[in-house]
Amino acid sequence: MVKSTSLTKQELVDVLHAAKSTKEKNRAVKLLKQFDPIPKYEFDDEGLKANLQPKKYDYLLGFMCFRCDKVKQSNYKVHWTTSKGKKQICHSCYNQLVEREDVAKMRAANQKAGIIPKGFGLGLTGVGDGR
Questions:
Q1: Contact 8, 31 (CB under 8 A)
Q2: Contact by Cβ (8 Å): 1, 20
Q3: Which residues, in sequence order, are bridge partners of residue 85?
Q4: Angle, nearest 10°, between helix axes 9-18 and 22-32?
Q5: 8: which residues sit within 8 A by CB, 6+ positions away?
Q6: Under DSSP, is residue 24 helix (H, G, I), strand (E, B) or coil?
Q7: What is the chain's pLDDT, residue by residue, as a tens digit (131 residues)?
Q8: pLDDT of residue 2
Q9: What's the start-to-end Cα distance of the chain, in Å?
Q10: Which is nearest to 80 in space by CA: 40, 26, 128, 124?
Q11: How far are the Cα atoms of 46, 48, 54, 123, 125 from residue 109, in angstroms, in the given order?
């Protein structure tokens, strides 16, 4: 069906969503992989576990990840509720967002306990600047 590479990225995304057969989906995924991703990290501060709903499917899904802007074929898809509506992201982006939240919680707890100085790891301590 998709034999021409003259289709735009958005047209291929539409073909991927509308494809009924596995052959059409695979061809759309292959052509979408040729495009350079343009990641969207502006909603990362909304990436809390409460806003993320991972789901495992028994079959292979083909979709575009909103956050990393890459085409994915996976059994996992995560529904992310942002201020701009529901978005679909891949499992690796989900893991990055969850890990980011966990690190922030651990950093706050360690700073409160006095284990690490305030601002450590954020380039605010001035350590290592005098090379």
A1: no
A2: no
A3: 82
A4: 160
A5: none
A6: helix
A7: 445 568 899 999 999 999 999 999 999 999 999 999 999 999 999 989 999 999 999 999 999 999 999 999 999 999 999 999 999 999 999 999 999 999 989 988 888 888 877 765 555 554 544 44
A8: 45
A9: 59
A10: 40
A11: 20, 17, 27, 19, 18
AA identity, residue 87? K
Please tell me the distance from the alpha carbon of residue 12 to that of residue 49, in angstroms, as a whole number: 31
> Pairing state of beta strands 52-64 and 85-89?
unpaired
Q: Which residues, in sequence order, are CB contacts of 105 under 8 Å at separation 6+?
A: none
Position of tokens 């079959």? 59
pTM summary value = 0.80
